[in-house]
């Protein structure tokens, strides 16, 4: 009852034109920021941080959290319509969202991505409110061995990302891991594969690489084919404007719940974030689906898994931030700066000294989630118009936004070159039927795997990986996940032989 009373008091603090205007502005800016390739959620929050200096601490924090929440959905808009993920976590949304758009079902993909984002966000917020302290304590018990095992578990999703081409997917993920080793060693400080190029000391910037692999590679492939028309089925089919039916949403409800819970749990672990949550949730849903063959070709279940998990990870990432003062993601690291600027100290003292701010923030997340649903639904017709633009206009725009977006990350022309180079690499890989998504998985998890393995070996040697129970369980699950496709293939071959006999 005390918690409900605190939430009710928080809602009363939001009853007014100014708080609602602040939340609405944050949601709109977050959607636009997330939809723009190269502008990550953390970048959107950082860009708007100076505008909160004149606000009260509560309203400043509310606006930044609304931006953070909405930007995770915004990335799905361009991922679905033009195969250009606006955020790293939207990469997984593009796997099925873009094929759906190409087949004339852009309305369904956008509608499902919106509702899944809202549902996942709601799950994350509820878990944040009810279990913030216990979840934070549990995450605090993670040693490097557990982080390494979790990352390995995430890496096993490559078996699903490659579909039936497991060998090509394995080669692609190894390429991503190899590219991730370029730069200074995070523990010893030794330079690797830099060839005395100072810009390579920090390795490849992830955002330019991501834009190149998914946006520019698509442009290059279509230019090669001379394909400059709008998507035929999309532009001619009137069903483009159709919204999913209620029965469609109800059929996906358990997927939303599973992905929402999984995304929240993964979001609690500092450094994991929405991208890893999306990959793992996508893999889980594919394994549980009755039609796994549709994943990667236009499955609504795949869109649900990606969007519900990355949105729910927001609530998870806020758990260690608010209760322990530990940032769970890049965006929450920016939020720590915002709290410090407003003379607020994240951690247990925030709950004891400023409970009204904490519960006003919790209440504002519910309101922001509802505003996101309304704004996303009203703007759906606008998002759909993107698919009707002729490619002769669209591709130069994508190329320009890709160049500007990659430059904006660090104001570096070197990053522009990285973007173009990865675009060419992605085009060549797709040309020879190698998937690009496992490369992203290798780039995302490479640092996490390397750092935590080195720290584990320095602490107590490799035995720690198997003597700590949680680490051993996660590694066992990883082994089962890797063996499952091979066992299914062996069983299928045996069945074929039995049928022939």
Provide an overview of this structure.
The protein is built from 24 helices and two strands. Helix 13 packs antiparallel against helix 14. It is globular. About 2% of the residues have low confidence. It is mainly α and 501 residues long. It has a two-stranded antiparallel sheet with strand order 1-2. Strand 1 and strand 2 form a beta hairpin.
Q: Report strand order across the widest sheet.
A: 1-2
Roughly how many Å is the radius of gyration? 22 Å
Look at the helices and sheets and give the structural class: mainly alpha
Beta strands, count: 2
List keywords for this structure.
501 residues; mainly alpha
Give a short overview.
This protein has 501 residues and is an all-alpha fold.
SSE topology:
Elements: H1 2-13, H2 17-35, H3 41-48, H4 57-82, H5 90-102, H6 106-140, H7 144-155, H8 158-161, H9 166-180, E1 183-184, E2 191-192, H10 206-225, H11 232-236, H12 246-251, H13 253-268, H14 273-288, H15 300-324, H16 330-341, H17 348-353, H18 355-378, H19 380-385, H20 391-410, H21 413-431, H22 437-460, H23 464-467, H24 469-500
Antiparallel strand pairs: 1-2
């Amino acid at each position: 009852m005390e918690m409900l009373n605190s939430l009710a008091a928080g809602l009363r603090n939001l009853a007014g034109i100014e708080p609602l205007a602040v939340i609405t502005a944050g949601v709109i800016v977050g959607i636009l920021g997330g939809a723009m390739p190269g502008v990550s959620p953390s970048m959107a929050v950082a860009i708007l941080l100076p505008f909160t200096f004149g606000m009260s601490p509560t309203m400043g924090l509310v606006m930044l959290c609304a931006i953070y929440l909405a930007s995770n959905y915004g990335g799905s808009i361009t991922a679905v319509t033009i195969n250009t993920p606006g955020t790293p976590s939207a990469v997984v949304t593009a796997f099925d969202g873009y094929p759906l758009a190409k087949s004339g079902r852009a309305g369904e993909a956008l509608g499902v991505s919106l509702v899944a984002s809202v549902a996942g966000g709601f799950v994350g917020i509820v878990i944040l409110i009810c279990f913030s302290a216990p979840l934070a304590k549990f995450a605090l018990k993670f040693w490097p061995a557990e982080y390494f095992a979790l990352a390995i578990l995430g890496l096993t999703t490559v078996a699903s990302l490659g579909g039936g081409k497991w060998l090509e997917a394995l080669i692609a993920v190894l390429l991503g891991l190899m590219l991730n080793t370029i730069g200074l060693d995070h523990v010893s400080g030794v330079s690797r594969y830099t060839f005395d190029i100072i810009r390579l000391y920090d390795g490849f910037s992830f955002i330019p690489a991501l834009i190149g692999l998914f946006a520019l590679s698509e442009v290059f492939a279509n230019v090669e084919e001379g394909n400059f028309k709008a998507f035929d089925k999309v532009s001619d089919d009137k069903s483009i404007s159709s919204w999913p039916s209620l029965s469609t949403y109800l059929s996906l409800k358990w997927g939303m719940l599973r992905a929402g819970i999984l995304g929240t749990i993964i979001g609690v672990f500092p450094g994991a974030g929405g991208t890893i949550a999306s990959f793992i949730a996508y893999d889980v849903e594919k394994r549980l689906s009755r039609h796994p063959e549709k994943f990667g070709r236009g499955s609504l279940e795949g869109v649900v898994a990606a969007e519900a998990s990355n949105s729910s990870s927001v609530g998870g990432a806020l758990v260690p931030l608010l209760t322990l003062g530990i940032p769970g993601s890049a965006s929450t690291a920016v939020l720590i700066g915002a709290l410090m600027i407003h003379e607020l100290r994240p951690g247990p003292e925030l709950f004891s000294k400023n409970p009204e701010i904490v519960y006003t923030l919790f209440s504002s997340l519910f309101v922001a989630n509802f505003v996101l649903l309304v704004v996303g639904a009203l703007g759906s017709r606008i998002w759909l118009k993107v698919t009707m633009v002729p490619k002769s206009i669209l591709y130069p725009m994508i190329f320009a936004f890709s160049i500007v977006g990659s430059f904006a990350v660090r104001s570096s022309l070197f990053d522009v070159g990285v973007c173009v180079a990865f675009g060419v690499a992605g085009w060549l890989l797709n040309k020879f039927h190698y998937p690009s998504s496992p490369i992203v998985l290798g780039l995302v998890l490479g640092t996490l795997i390397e750092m935590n393995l080195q720290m584990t070996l320095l602490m107590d040697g490799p035995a720690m990986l198997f003597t700590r129970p949680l680490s051993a369980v996660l590694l066992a699950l990883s082994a089962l996940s890797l063996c499952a496709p091979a066992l299914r293939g062996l069983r299928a071959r045996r069945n074929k032989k039995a049928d022939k006999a």
